[in-house]
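Repro:
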Amino acid sequence: MRWPTAVGPGVSSMNTTLISALAAFGGSSVGALAPVLSSYVLQRSASQREMSNRQIALREALYSDFIKEASRLYATSLTHVLENLDDLVSVYALVSRIRLFASEPVVRAAEDFVKQIVGHYGKPNLSVEQIRAAALSAEADPLDVFSFACRTELRDMLQRGTAPATMRGRLDLMATTGGGRWR
């Protein structure tokens, strides 16, 4: 005996075998697709983390090079006249490299410190007693603004887990101002 269907005239009922086959196919598809999507998400996350770690290492090395070179040049500027322009050129080159990657506060601090070095070369040399007095005063760490800006930037990068979009911001700034600028 055939069961009556609630389907109107001209509409046929769906075969239960077809429904079962479609359900099995859909389940298999979802089951096969889940590991692929999971693998993609994990791989992308690992790639972003690796890129962030490389960015942090690159910046740490660059900032360290700047601190080392600028500190040496700062000490020289207090006690000597500018004899070798190559030293000043190397610091300007480091600042230019910093501009490629760093946030605005880091760039500004680096630029300001180089101006401070150049300013000292124009002043009379300091005596040992004057240098000792300056070291004991509030001026003891002339690189503190730069160091704190770097630490803040690196800490923010670590917290976010990704490098900030400073490159895009710097390129936008350069496009609107017609190139780099030196304050």
